[in-house]
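Course assignment 3, question 2. Fill in each field.
Student: A.L.
Task: Predict the tertiary structure for the chain below.
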Amino acid sequence: MLARLLGLKDAESVNYFFWHLRHPWPGAVAIALVLCAAAYAIWLYRGEIGLSRARRVSMAVLRTLVLGTVILMLFEPAFALEATVRLRRVVLVLLDRSDSMRQTEVRQRREDLADAAIALGKIAPEAYATAVLDPHRREIDSATRLDMARRLLANADLKILERLGKNNTVRLFTFNQELDPISGEGDMEIPDTQRQRAFDRVTALGSAVHEAVQRYAGQPIAAVVVISDGASNAGLEPLEVARRMKERGVPIYTVGIGVADPPDVRIADVIAQETVFAQDRVPVTVRLESSGYDRQQARLSLALDGQEIEGQSRTVTLTGGTQYEEFTFTAGTRTGRMKLSATISPMAGEASADNNVFERPIEVTDQKIKVLYVEGKPRWEYRYLRAVLLRDPRLDVRFLMTQGDSDLARYSPIYIDRFPDDASAFAFDMIIIGDVPCTYFTPDQVERIRRLVQDQGGSLLMLAGRRFAPATYAGTTLGALLPVEATRDAPITVNNDAHPVITSAGQASAAVALETLADDNNQVWSMVRPLYQLPAIKAIKPGAIVLAELSEAVGLLREKYPLVAWHRVGSGGKVMYVATDQLWRLRFKTGDKYHARFWSQTIQFMSLSRLLGGNKRVNIQIDKRRYQPGDQVRIFARVLTQAYEPAIGPQYEINLERLDGERETRRVRLESVPDSPGVYQGYVTADRDGRYVLRATGEDLQSSNAPEFEIMPPVAPEAREPRMQRDLLRRIAELSGGRYIEMKDIRSLPDLIGAETRLAAVRMEKELWDLPAVFVLLVILAGAEWFVRRRSNLV
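Answer field:
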């Protein structure tokens, strides 16, 4: 009874209870006041001589009880107990209401029709294989995914929510960009989402699961049920959230709504260099994905800024899966930022034509990359690399040979006789140091190399050798710039079968990806053998990115030996370490194809950021080229004086200009970065769609780059990928310890989650003064006294 009074309906037993007064006055005062009230009542009725003793005593007792109860209530009495209760687990049900759930679908296969019929309540799951579906075809074709999800939860035969709530506490949510509880988070009413706020183009599936679990972190959570098409284009990575749920013991049960493989043709990606040179040949790879159109033909074309590129269209035969189409076009003389797009013609009955076009930005420049290559003896790698560098029209190369013919610089303009001792060293975008001893460079020259990389955004590449590099650089200023920690130990001899293996970071890199497919790429790199010996190194520095590693472990490193690694230093500088001089073996049976491609891609990767602004006195950088509304645009500026010394001052102002629509300009104030002279940073909120450019002001305008960026709303998931993401939903369930529920098995969902409960000790306290029973008691006592007084003819 006490547990019921305090709202503990699931109490198994009451361990102990007591009551106390919350008022700061001592309890003795309350007792004294109650005694005074009793004395008053006795005195009041003692003088009523005409009444019997029993009646006088009863009225005195009633008066004492009324006054005593009022006095005790003034002292705020409270009742406390500890009870053992059976805790009900919480089931969180998340219903996707985003844009992708609004679309209707073309259903051709019987399995897809049966799934829709079950969701709409037209057939029972048990009739999945035998039911006649034709009478329901019209309703199935007109229903959206969201209609099916809502009808599934409201199905009076399945009673999913009712069965889940029988032994669990069910909390129902909808989600798109944000998570929204439905009807106080406890009601079983299915939401009329048309009355919710407008559908959002953003779907944050992973974030929705994470936030829902966080809201009930203090309660036992039985499971999360996600009813969705699996489309997600924002927020936390769903698979990472699933792994976290596994650690917390919260399984995710996913129910897929939609067709997993609708008839569709889409351009999944356009693979091309972000920056190309004017009049250069530009290779482009278009990745196509299709289903339902096997062996049918479609027209595929490339365009630049909306103008179809002459000769860059063809008819392709669709394979019903992923296929790659290779193009090569020549960039014109027009420079600047443009849009490269690939378009494939729509097919009859296609699920979505929005994904038949794919755009990506491309920068065309007519500047040349200035490279200084410092080498010792003319080893094999140098001989082949020299020819590659001289043949590349995008490069302006100078060579410095520390050994060999000392008259080279006298007879050839491409050679210099010594490393620059003045500010002309800063004109180079990249310095390649071969097998040259560190002692060759004077302290002033070392300082210039350091400043070029750390302060002016230049690049340094060390092409290791067997004698001097990187061994003699261990513990030096230049050694500190490398992405690996060098040592003076003897070189490591490796097996003849050991060869480079491209890492996942390397496959995504613009440097070592010589073929589009990872297997083909590794096959090319496996030709680089034997390697004979590699320099001994102690460790890979934190933050370094390994692009290629040795196929087997050598030396004392815990990780595999890094053959190609790089990292950023200072204000935008890049340093790369290439551990072997045997890359010329990429020429085996292929000539210059791969060897020249590696060095061309690597030099561009290392140097283009400086070329496109880094060699200016004012170098403005942003973290990416495309933002969504509400994002923060992070801005860095490296500012040098006329003497190429770091600028001083607490602030630096630049202009933000809108290039399309309603043109506007506003000032952006950047703050100096502590301990980084000449470096400033700031933020701008991306609030309006459009194209923007950042420019310096005043006299710095002519000595500054002008990076552009776009603010674009996020692409709706269904625009790029209209199919239901069954594989993703299945993977989420597996990683979390849950299960992906097929529509034919939907009836089993409540049984899979179960109704496990656990006992827990709960301490509770209840104020007695505001209980309705207390006021009822007062009315009864006061009424009883009044009744007795009236019967006794007392006023």
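Instructor remarks: The longest strand covers residues 11-21. DSSP finds 20 helices and 37 strands in the chain.
Grade: pending
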